[in-house]
Amino acid sequence: MDRILSLAEKLGELRPELDLYLVAGVGIEELAGSLTRRFRRIFRRQDGLELHLSLLAGIAERYEAPFFHAVQQYSRKPAGVFHALPVSRGGSVIHSKWINDLGEFYGLNLLLAETSATSGGLDSLLDPHGSLKQAQKLAARAFGAQKSLFVTNGTSTANKIVHQSILAPGDVVLVDRNCHKSHHYALMLAGAQVSYLDAYPLNDFSFYGAVPLESIKRMLLDYRRAGRLHEVKMLALTNCTFDGIVYDVERVMEECLAIKPDLVFLWDEAWFAFAGFHHIYRRRTAMASARSLERSFADPAYARRHAQQLRELGAADVAPAGVHDPHP
Question: CA 242 from chain center: how many Å?
Answer without folding.
Answer: 18
